[in-house]
Structures are given as structure tokens and as C-alpha cells.
Amino acid sequence: MNERLDVSGLLCPLPVLKARKALQSVEVGDVLEVLATDPAAAIDIPHFCNEAGHELVSSEQDGETLTFRIRRGESRG
What we know:
Elements: E1 2-6, H1 14-23, E2 31-36, H2 41-52, E3 55-62, E4 65-71
Parallel strand pairs: 1-2
Antiparallel strand pairs: 2-4, 3-4
Helix pairs in contact: 1-2
């Protein structure tokens, strides 16, 4: 099952905080798609995934919209 989280219009640190909370409600191994418009998310989301033990499956940009696909791992916090 895949989930989608749209945090467009929100600025740092809200995209990461909302992604962290959303990942708590998906099963380990499932993918959360995050849509963001904050340019800082291009740095913050990959860093969060690395620190928290999640896999950043993909990241892409279409205009101002950044799309991240995060596979939930065994969270380290």
C-alpha cells in the first residue's frame, strides 16, 4: 500500500516533521510519496531518510514541485 502526503506551501521544518509523522502510520516496507514546494526539502528529506533509517526510493522535480518516494524502514527514532 502506498500513501501520499502533500506538504506543498509549507516551509522547513514542517515538510520533514509531517513526513516523519505520516511514516509512523504506514507499514515497514511501504512507500510514502511526499509532494513539497520548499526548496530546502531537497536537502532536508534525504537527510531525514538517512538519519531515520528510511530508503529514499526516488526524488524528482517538476517545476516548483519536488516529489519524494520514501520506503519506510525500521525507524531509528
